[in-house]
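Re-run with default settings, no changes from the original entry. Doing this only to confirm the output is reproducible before filing.
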Amino acid sequence: MADDGNKPGAPRDLVKAESMIQLAIALPIGCLIGWLAGSWADRHFGQHWIGITGILLGAAAGFLQMFRTAAKYLKDSR
């Protein structure tokens, strides 16, 4: 049987595309979730700074996810 790993459109290419999509949405989704959680905490506790902290923590989580995904992609491509 022929090796399908080198054909365009092989499942490996789809997995790589999915990894790239994860890279593209990790940071915005992290910031959005952090902002939503921070806004809720602002209303719940009557503060005004928790929303900003939530955005920063969400951005940090998004960057961490981006680095993990990129490291896995680079490791798998070798």
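Residues 22-76 form one domain. The chain has one domain: 22-76.
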